[in-house]
């Protein structure tokens, strides 16, 4: 039985997701369809990738993940299939693939799409349904699509490191307005080398000096730093809304390389807020 996950920016108030599931079940009646989320940001690919990466790793081999964000940013006539570890990803050719994989996958295939036809969302989803059916019935990716090497690449921003500091970016704000940065516990400890530290955030340079195991051991008004279930640095206030209180925001837009000159960055507000860690 095929396991198919759906991660989209379509929302749940339209008919499209219901229709797509109908397309999938018509071709693969015994499929198990799992909704990861339909609330992905259409422009915050760092957030979308964070959600997908840390959900996908809990699924079994041969799971087929369909990721649909910002479908019409580019011409949707090129839809992609990629091997992701021992799983599959189907997605538009807009950079979300390399944001999730954090590298250029070696096995990427272009799905057959009718040339010259007007392509709607449901038509694109129909092509995904056909690809899912072929994979679920034992076809290899070579039998599903055409190998390609030329597709849109975007990559997540990485923290920057010095001998005594790390600077990371906010990549996700959850429904409780807890703030997740792109600093992993492994990177934190490697740079720390057993030293004391200060975690600084917000315009007022608020300071946290200890990473807690969880929220339960903290006072109600205390700023809290933890490493969350994904192993990423998370900042919060117990029973409070950290992001709203301090006006913290994550990525709102992205570029193909994330490389901007100082002149360019000065012409507009930078699209992330930073979390800084100083070691003593």
Kindly describe this structure.
By secondary structure, the protein is an alpha+beta fold. It has two domains: 3-147, Rossmann fold, CATH 3.40.50; 160-279, Beta Barrel (Elongation Factor Tu (Ef-tu), domain 3). Helices cover 24% and strands 27% of the residues. It has helices at 16-27, 45-56, 96-101, 121-136, 141-144, 185-192, 242-246, 262-266, and strands at residues 3-8, 32-37, 64-68, 79-84, 87-92, 108-110, 146-147, 160-161, 165-173, 179-184, 197-201, 206-208, 223-227, 232-237, 274-279. The strands form two sheets. Strands 8, 9, 10, 11, 12, 13, 14 and 15 form an eight-stranded antiparallel β-sheet that branches. It has a seven-stranded mixed β-sheet with strand order 2-1-3-5-4-6-7, with helices on both faces. Strand 1, helix 1 (16-27) and strand 2 form a beta-alpha-beta unit. Residues 253-271 have low confidence and may be disordered.
